[in-house]
């Protein structure tokens, strides 16, 4: 079992940047597909980005393509989400998740595929 802990959230003005971190413990993240999801008040938790075990493949939600970048450092057992050009509509609680299953567009973008979740970190973008 892997435990995940997000950090790095905060309040930022539109156009600014934040980098979220997801520190894993218990097991190495190299075993897992890693993803980021977000949930705004009153809305469903939605997919943001996922990265394959090999670190070669990624999927991004259209709403964040070109602005967000996921990366993983297996040596530090940490996944990062670099968020640039932030918009007010990016305001949400951001969750890190780990998936022990198969990589693919129909699974790795679905929250139901993920086995482990962090507690979330709040990101607020002011206009």
How would you briefly describe this protein structure?
The chain has 127 residues and is mainly beta. It is 0% helix and 48% strand. Strand 7 and strand 8 form a beta hairpin.
Uncertain regions: pLDDT < 50 for 5+ in a row?
none
Mean pLDDT across all residues, rounded? 96
N-C termini distance: 40 Å
What summary fits the major beta sheet? Answer: 7 strands, mixed
Structural class: mainly beta
Evaluate the radius of gyration. Answer: 13 Å
Order of helices and strands: EEEEEEEEEEE
Principal-axis shape equals globular
How much helical structure, as a percent, in the residues? under 10%
Helical stretch count?
A: 0
Please report which band the strand proportion falls in: under 5%, 5-15%, 15-25%, 25-35%, 35-45% or over 45%: over 45%
Count of distinct strands: 11
Structure description:
With 127 residues, the chain is mostly beta strands. Helix content is 0%, strand content 48%. The chain is built from no helices and 11 strands. It has strands spanning 3-7, 10-13, 18-25, 33-39, 46-51, 58-60, 68-73, 78-83, 92-99, 116-117, 121-126. Strands 2, 4, 5, 6, 9, 10 and 11 form a 7-stranded mixed β-sheet that branches. The chain has a 4-stranded antiparallel β-sheet with strand order 1-3-8-7, with no helix packed on it. The N and C termini lie far apart (40 Å).
């Amino acid at each position: 079992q892997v435990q995940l802990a997000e950090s790095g959230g905060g309040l930022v003005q539109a156009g600014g940047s934040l980098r979220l971190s997801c520190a894993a413990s218990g097991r190495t993240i190299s075993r897992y597909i890693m993803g980021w999801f977000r949930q705004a008040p009153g809305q469903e938790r939605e997919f943001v980005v996922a990265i394959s075990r090999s670190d070669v493949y990624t999927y991004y939600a259209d709403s964040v393509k070109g602005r967000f970048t996921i990366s993983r450092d297996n040596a530090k057992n940490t996944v990062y989400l670099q968020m640039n050009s932030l918009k007010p509509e990016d305001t949400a609680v951001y969750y890190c998740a780990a998936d022990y299953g198969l990589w693919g567009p129909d699974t790795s973008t679905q929250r139901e595929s993920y086995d482990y979740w962090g507690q979330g970190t709040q990101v607020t973008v002011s206009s």
